[in-house]
Design goal:
Blueprint: H1 8-45, H2 49-66, H3 69-76, E1 85-95, E2 98-107, E3 110-115, E4 119-123, E5 126-130, E6 133-137, E7 141-148, E8 156-162, E9 167-171, H4 176-189
Antiparallel strand pairs: 1-2, 1-9, 2-3, 3-6, 4-5, 7-8, 8-9
Helix pairs in contact: 1-2
Length: about 190
């Protein structure tokens, strides 16, 4: 038999490495659980689970075909020179007609939401179709308030209030924490 001598320094190094690995696994597990929960909540927000899943697939296809969210943002909204898209978030906008699935864009100049599909409305006894859009210039932004349902904490919302006190409620985010952080940062830096 051969016995090896292990120094106490080696034991400490191995213990520290295992501790770091355990923390990283824990963080990855938390992120995976959040993503799964957010995805489930996103799909449940739609009146039809199937429509929501197909809508996300169609949106992903559009993003690939159009060359990314930045290109879609620039095609969908008027932009000013130097304006940069910071991030985009798949979510729903709460409306009196029910939740509208779309994408919330955050740029260096504005918050902008556009529905994934055109919605119908009546005009002169005819049915018209149009994308549902909301645009709030950052200098017109008053507040960003994250919240959750008291009865079901998995239902998370973000209330956006403009300086003229219009309220917009967004929900069903695939990346809720990322959206909250990005929107709060935009609020902080809106006047710089």
């Amino acid at each position: 038999m051969v016995f090896m001598s292990v120094s106490s320094e080696t034991v400490v190094n191995v213990r520290d490495m295992l501790g770091r690995w355990r923390r990283k696994v824990g963080e990855a597990t938390k992120k995976a659980e959040d993503l799964a929960g957010n995805t489930w909540q996103h799909l449940k927000t739609s009146p039809s689970l199937t429509d929501a899943a197909l809508g996300r697939l169609a949106q992903g296809t559009k993003v690939l075909a159009e060359g990314g969210y930045d290109n879609i943002f620039r095609q969908t909204f008027d932009t000013v020179p130097g304006e940069q898209l910071q991030n985009s978030y798949a979510c729903y906008l709460s409306t009196s007609a029910g939740p509208v699935m779309g994408v919330l864009y955050v740029s260096t100049k504005k918050f902008a939401f556009s529905s994934d599909n055109p919605l119908s409305y009546k005009a002169n006894n005819r049915t018209e179709w149009s994308y549902y859009k909301v645009v709030i210039p950052l200098n017109q932004l008053k507040a960003v308030n994250p919240s959750a349902s008291r009865t079901n904490p998995a239902e998370k919302y973000i209330q956006v209030i403009s300086v003229d006190n219009h309220e917009f409620w967004y929900m069903g985010f695939l990346n809720y924490d990322g959206a909250v952080n990005c929107l709060e940062e935009a609020l902080i830096y809106r006047n710089l």
